[in-house]
Amino acid sequence: MRGKRLxxxxxxxxxxxxxxxxxxxxxxxxxxxxxxxxxxxxxxxxIGLMEPLGTLRDASVDEPTFEEFHLHATRYDSVDAPIAVRxxxxxxxxxxxCRRCSIVVLRYTEYxxxxxxxxxxxxxxxxxxx
Length: 130
Known about the structure:
Blueprint lengths: L7 H12 L18 E3 L9 E6 L38 E5 L5 E8 L4 E7 L8
Antiparallel strand pairs: 1-5, 2-3, 3-4, 4-5
């Protein structure tokens, strides 16, 4: 999925809409627990529930940066790490919303020497997006 390129204000707006929906932790998407980067298999991706909203990837950049942006000593896997759309891994993400519970999630694929690792992270709060 690629689709429309979203910038930080647009992603923040989508997250604000998601914030206004009452939580549905028992949704069939089972993505509410993904508050940090979680690995998943394609078999676990709830494709029938997920609505593609766009991408954070800039199509004009062949190789997006691997530089990360952190505030307050956060790390890649920190729940409170900022969602800095121009930095890794967010600059490689597609954005989806669950059609049933309306949570917004980010998805990207990590490619290593001998592996492919699909990862996702739920946007917990619009305040995370910078």
